[in-house]
Amino acid sequence: MPSWVNQMLGTNSLFQGPGFIWNTCMNMVRALMGTSPSTFSPDAWNFVTQTLYPWFLAIGTILLNFFCLIGFVRQAANLKENVTMEMWIELFIKTLIANLLMRYGLSIMADIFTIAAGNTVFIMGDSLPSIWTTDNDVGAVLAYLVVGLIYLIGSAVCGIMIVVEVMSRYLNLYILVAVAPVALSTWAGGRGIEDTAFAWIKSFLTNVFQIVAIALVLRIGTLIGQNTIFQSTTDGTIFGMFSGSASVLFSMMNMFFMTSAVKGADGLIKRAFNLR
Hints:
- The protein is mainly α.
- It has helices at 3-8, 17-33, 37-40, 42-76, 85-124, 138-185, 195-226, 243-263, 265-272.
- It has one domain (17-272).
- The protein is elongated, with a radius of gyration of 26 Å.
């Protein structure tokens, strides 16, 4: 291969820009995904747990008594159903559960965060969905000249979208932790009112284990990108001296595929576990 081609496609070349941007974003994602909210931003975590959570806990405690009274009145005034001892026991148990969750909810949520972070690290392993050109030939030069700008912009947009998707999950968790006492206090209100508590639990579990779903997407997507039926087009046996163009196009396709899969991880979790 001519020396000018190697120089043009060298590690310091503009042609390496898309791969550099994408791989940098994936390294950022790896660093973010293995952390819990307490280590992601200690200042934000301290503000949520030491300032916001006690404030919402005071509000939730008042609402707990209020919803408990509402549940009691609703049971007593229900003329369509016979008032039985089982109804009062059910209401008492729900009030007790709500009280325990509000009292020990912060430590329970921290343990769940630790479990999710550990599972994420295990699933991710040492692999990341990197992109590169496997054959720097004339085909690669032509592909870069035709779609180079799209490749560069696409790598930046897709990489940033995945980083933002991971970071937004932490913001959602901080907000869910802060308002937990208010949402869980509705459990004492009985049927109908307790739907708010169930909605919070579903939202919390969805956001916590969304990071595990993203780790699964990235790990399995990496394996797909490394070895699929389409990968045979980049080994030089089909395109010959233009096999580099297939490598560039396959990298672009894999990059867009990974971004779409990560964006859809949240919806997949909701549908699979009925958390909508």
